Amino acid sequence: MNRAAQPAPGIQAHFAKHFGGGVDICVDELCTGAHTGITVLFGASGSGKTTVLRCLAGLTAPDEGWIRFAGETWTDTARGFHLPPQQRHIGFVPQHYALFPHLSVAHNIAFGLHASTGAERAARVADMLRWVGLEGLADRLPRDLSGGQQQRVALARAVVTRPRLLLMDEPLSALDAPTRLRLGVELRGLLRQLDIPSLLVTHDRHEALTLGDDLVVMDQGRMIQRGPVHEVFSHPMSLAVAGIVAMETVQPGCIVQAADGLVTVAVGTAHLTAIGLNTLPIGGEVYVCIRAENVILLKGAEALTASPRNHLPAVVRALHDEGPILRIDLDCGFPLMALLTKQACTELALKPNDRVTVLVKAPQVHLIPHATVAGGY
Amino acid sequence: MTHEAWQFISFTVRMALLSMLVIVPPGLALAWCLARHQWRGKVVVETLTFLPLVLPPVVTGLILLQLFGRHGVIGHWLYLHGGMDVAFTWRAVVLALAVMSFPLFVRAVQSAFEEIDPLYEQIARTLGASEWRIFFTILLPLARRGILAGLLLAFARALGEFGATIIVAGNIPGQTTTLSVAIYQAVQLGQDSYAWILAGVSAVLACAAVWLSTGLLRHPKRAL
């Protein structure tokens, strides 16, 4: 396919869907970029992600607005136009996969290939089975497959027709935790090979980080921030986004000094150095965001104040066991959360009320100005 | 059993089977429209379809006679264009059995369709399947147990039909007399033991149909 010839690759959409008593969904200019990467629509349950996906697939009609894909109009309520899903040529993988329960794996995959001849169809199905690593299961019924196998059959069924856009609804959420970890990596590998622009919705941080390139954050039916996944997770632009991406430490602070591109922020009784935002005046109110994974703990080291590396004395308040990692509540003049591996924790011999030194690099102290209200990019 | 008794039994079974053939295509189509679509006049069609369930069968028979008699709206047209008499012929028997069992079939199929997650059809649409293809390759196979169970119930209902049949088809031995009508006549003539034999046969037929039907619905997960 000659992608250069396509006028505007990706999705452009602006539509609204109203629910009686529920959330109004409003999508502004939802674009997946020119590249064929994976865009994640991220938000809590009930934020309208699945509805957006269903509107794009043509399974639900928006109440007003339009949807275009690669320059082609899919929906335009002003003209009463609604391209049926059959003609959108997309792949859709719903949350619980919805494999046709009465059809074998091979027939499920072959379902979209009704226009092909028998031999062609058989060859394509065999290709797909090999691709997802399910050779030998062609004659199984969906109920005899594990969750992970069902997921791969659903993916194969959706992409066997070489769709122009792949839509996935929480592709990993129906799996148990160990399978989810393993298949997340596998699924990413498969999607990478596909070279099909993909949009997936999820409320799971792990799913977003494992699978996504770009992230669009949805809150109460609105898109409130977009950007590369890691960028959005570490630099939320508003308190609402910080909450949705589960920023571990969010504390109110006040700018007390600004010089040479660095600002000093008073948080609780502590002072932190952050990379300065030109727009922040002295005395400006901010929210200080620190990702737990960016907090380094030292024991016995000397606390240096006013260093760009932010050495702060702290007291361990509590340790929470979360499997391979420990979540540690600290008090360093303000409540701060850190993550440590079990190994590191044993080496430090941490226990509640221990005195430690906290180290947070200035670029990892993210500031949200108070003025930024939810909404807007 | 007498030759005549066998004749009644086989005639009734053949008429009931024929009426099933008549109701299956429109029944499937109507159940699909009721289960999956919203349209104007849906309530009217639904009411008309299910009316024979609650209307006295004799009244249904009377209405059919009015419509299909040689001077009725439909009967007259059929007589003119097809040279065909309906009332008081075997056709009237099939008509009465079909109309009386139609709502049972439609209701069973409708609920079988409604039990299917619409997501399957939606996925099929994203895979480019036409509505026809979805109906035949997704809905029918997934609803097959409910459809068969509904068909058996409708068949059992047709076997026992009396009120509508006797009005629109009458009681012409060898031409329109069904099992139920024959029983009625035997009782009228004081042939009680003969009536009991026929009653026993219809009870066995009805039991078999209901037993099969509930068996089908009880194990929805087991492959057919």
Layout of helices and strands:
The complex is a heterodimer of chains A (377) and B (224).
Chain A: E1 11-17, E2 25-27, E3 38-42, H1 49-57, E4 64-69, E5 72-76, E6 81-82, E7 90-93, H2 105-110, H3 118-131, H4 147-159, E8 165-169, H5 177-194, E9 198-202, H6 205-211, E10 214-219, E11 222-228, H7 229-234, H8 239-244, E12 249-259, E13 262-267, E14 270-275, E15 285-290, E16 296-298, E17 311-322, E18 325-331, E19 335-341, H9 342-348, E20 355-359, E21 366-369
Parallel strand pairs in A: 3-9, 3-10, 7-8, 8-9
Antiparallel strand pairs in A: 1-2, 1-4, 4-5, 5-6, 10-11, 12-13, 12-15, 13-14, 15-21, 16-20, 17-18, 17-20, 18-19
Chain B: H1 3-36, H2 42-54, H3 57-68, H4 73-82, H5 90-114, H6 118-126, H7 131-142, H8 144-160, H9 163-168, H10 179-188, H11 192-218
Structure description:
The complex is a heterodimer of chains A (377) and B (224). Chain A is α+β, with helices and mostly antiparallel strands and 377 residues long. Chain A has 2 domains: 3-241, P-loop containing nucleotide triphosphate hydrolases (Rossmann fold, 3-Layer(aba) Sandwich); 251-369, OB fold (Dihydrolipoamide Acetyltransferase, E2P) (Beta Barrel). Chain A is 23% helix and 32% strand. Chain A contains 9 helices and 21 strands. Chain A is globular, with a radius of gyration of 24 Å. Chain A starts with 10 loop residues before the first strand and ends in an 8-residue tail after the last strand. The model of chain A is unreliable at 1-7 and 372-377 (pLDDT under 50). Chain B is mainly alpha-helical and 224 residues long. Chain B has one domain (3-218): Orthogonal Bundle (MetI-like fold), CATH 1.10.3720.10. Chain B is built from 11 helices and no strands. Chain B has helices at 3-36, 42-54, 57-68, 73-82, 90-114, 118-126, 131-142, 144-160, 163-168, 179-188, 192-218. In chain B, helix 5 (90-114) packs antiparallel against helix 8 (144-160). Chain B starts with a helix and ends in a 6-residue tail after the last helix.
